[in-house]
Amino acid sequence: MSDFVPNWRHSDPYSSEVAGTSIEGSGKAQHQRETALVAVATYPGRTSRELAEITGLDRYMLARRLPELLRFHKVSRTEEGECKWYPKGQMQVEMGI
Fold first, then answer.
1. Total tally of structural domains belonging to the chain
2. For the whole prediction, is pTM greater than 0.70?
3. Residue 74 burial (CB count, 10 A)
4. How far is the C-alpha of 6 from the C-alpha of 29, rounded, in Å?
5. In this structure, what are the phi and psi dihedrals at residue 3, rounded to the nearest 5 degrees?
6. Rg (CA), the chain
7. Which residues of 12-40 are buried (b: 16+ CB within 10 A; e: fewer)?
8. Could you tell me the residue range of the domain that residue 64 belongs to?
């Protein structure tokens, strides 16, 4: 999970790239990804809003880090209706797939 994934878009202002580089370089983004992964593993099948309410984590931090975890193949999410997050492989088991 330590591979670098830019957390800004090329169309974002330069300040977003600076902030993204800073949070990655400091290790804070990695720590947030690990915290988000623990939350999903502990409370699977929840939305980012629900995870935030249950854990006290910042909803917007989760909204940034969960898609990064998806790109790292650490979590999966539902595609229909509300976006619910699962540890990789668990969604298929719970849904009988």
1. 1
2. yes
3. 18
4. 11
5. -65, 145
6. 14
7. eeeeeeeebeebbeeeebeebbeebbebb
8. 14-94
